[in-house]
Amino acid sequence: MAPFYPLIIGMLAIVLAHSLCALTCLVRIFTKGEVGMGCACFIPIIGPFVLFFYSWSKAEEWQQQRLMVAFSVVMLAQILFGIILSVLMIKEGIAAVGR
Fold it and tell me: pTM of the prediction?
């Protein structure tokens, strides 16, 4: 499992960055008075998509283009790290569910 530690630490850093971007967008939605849309972001499964796409739709109006670019890059990095870790773990035969 030791060879995976740098990748796992990288994934944790990306998850932290993703959480900060999402929280910043969520706070922005509520501070702009969009309470209904802010509450919709808490709906399981579709909430994160609502948050991401609604924040992108308001990026220019709310002057948050750089935040949304960072949010997009972090999401892509998170997907890529997830794929890389999954492939490596399958290759090594490490089960996702405990032994």
Answer: 0.81
**CA–CA separation, 15 and 25 (whole Å):** 15
Going through 1-99 in order, the beta strands assigned E by DSSP cover none
3-state secondary structure of 45: coil
What string of pLDDT tens digits covers the 99 residues of the chain? Answer: 556 778 788 889 999 999 999 999 999 999 999 999 999 999 999 999 999 999 999 999 999 999 999 999 999 999 998 898 888 878 777 655 555
Neighbours of 85 (CB within 10 A): 16
Q: How far apart are CA 1 and CA 9, in angstroms?
A: 13
CB 55 within 8 A of CB 29: yes
Length of the chain: 99
Kindly report the number of other CB atoms within 10 A of residue 24's CB atom.
Answer: 15
- Residue 71's nearest CA partner among 29, 25, 30 is 25
